[in-house]
Model the fold of this input.
Amino acid sequence: MMGADVKGDIYEGLLEKNAEDTKSGAGQYFTPRSLIRAMVECVRPEPMRTIADPACGTGGFFLAAYDFIVANHSLDKEQKQFIKFNTFYGNEIVAGTRRLALMNLFLHNIGDIDSEILYHRQML
Done:
């Protein structure tokens, strides 16, 4: 059996490969992870704070923020519960990309399959 980290990392790798292999469309939901890590380093998220991403794509910013918090803070039980279920809120206008974000977070053991990633169809 593979742990959540291994499954999540495999899924992230597949998302990245798909973005590289697809000539059009994939860029709409895949920001290079190195750029996301740099943004998280600038923002320096903290435990017990919410993080909102109005265009969350596949959830890469959430995952990088989660990794940053876990690596830089010793979390107690309440903080671990908060980071898993109450920290991340996002919007996505592409239904398929929203599903990718939900699966990505779920495979990284963040939230559940019905987390707070909302789908809002773009109005023209």
